[in-house]
From TrEMBL:
One of its GO terms (molecular function) is transcription cis-regulatory region binding. Residues 17-77 form the HTH tetR-type domain. Keywords: DNA-binding, Transcription, Transcription regulation. Gene3D superfamilies: Homeodomain-like, Tetracycline Repressor, domain 2. InterPro entries: DNA-bd_HTH_TetR-type_CS, Homeodomain-like_sf, HTH-type_TetR-like_transc_reg, HTH_TetR, Tet_transcr_reg_TetR-rel_C_sf, TetR_C. It comes from the Bacteria. This is TetR/AcrR family transcriptional regulator. Residues 40-59 bind DNA. It holds the Pfam family TetR_C_11.
């Protein structure tokens, strides 16, 4: 009986390097189409062309998959900014956020958050996690600014800095008003800078109209 010296044993199917981003993409798509309850791991697996086992090897539950998929989407659409100044950092984040909420996907996500977070604690946890991450990134940006010697107030309420703009998005989604556009980034930045800066150099929001036109 012969032996197959030097022949490697057969292995399983090679790991698909594009599987994870593809799974996240379809998870977000199904979340926006059906809501959290309507999104199933079975449907995500079928849409992404993978087996359920592939998903569960990476995410232990549907909640973890949804949270990771949305976090990844936000990180791509509204990445952290480090421009060398707190005004530049906030302006870039505001511009990206405004661009996102004016997209079909972004507006759908805001509306989904409004409808689902108020009735489902699991969904509320997902959106709180996103806001908490944005708060942490903003705190880091303020810390960088202080380290550079920028006159940032010591008592900045970072939570409100993040939540006030998120509140604008929620109200406009509820009322059907147009979202402020990326061209409004500087106008919106004025309000935040007045609260953040300690030397009075922040632009006076009263110098221009206080209403933001979408």
């Amino acid at each position: 009986m012969g032996t197959n010296h030097g022949v490697r044993p057969r292995r399983g199917r090679p790991r698909d390097p594009d599987a994870e981003p593809r799974i996240r993409r379809y998870a977000v798509q199904l979340l926006l189409e059906r809501g959290f309850d309507g999104m199933t791991v079975d449907d995500v697996a079928e849409a992404a062309g993978v087996g359920k086992a592939t998903i569960y090897r990476r995410w232990a539950s549907k909640e973890q998959l949804a949270n990771d998929a949305l976090a990844d989407l936000f990180d791509i659409e509204i990445p952290d900014a480090d421009t060398g100044s707190i005004a530049g950092d906030l302006r870039q984040v505001y511009y990206d956020a405004l661009k996102f909420v004016n997209s079909k996907e972004g507006l759908a996500l805001i509306r989904l958050a409004v409808s689902e977070a108020t009735r489902d604690e699991r969904s509320a946890t997902i959106y709180r996690a996103f806001l908490e991450r944005r708060i942490q990134l903003t705190e880091a940006a303020l810390a960088r600014a202080r380290a550079r010697g920028e006159p940032v107030r010591s008592n900045v309420d970072t939570t409100l800095v993040v939540q006030w703009l998120a509140g604008v998005f929620v109200i406009r989604a509820l009322t059907g008003e147009d979202m402020p556009t990326p061209e409004d980034a500087d106008r919106l930045l004025m309000f935040t800078m007045r609260c953040v800066m300690d030397d009075g150099s922040g632009p006076d929001p009263g110098a221009e109209s206080n209403s933001v036109h979408g």
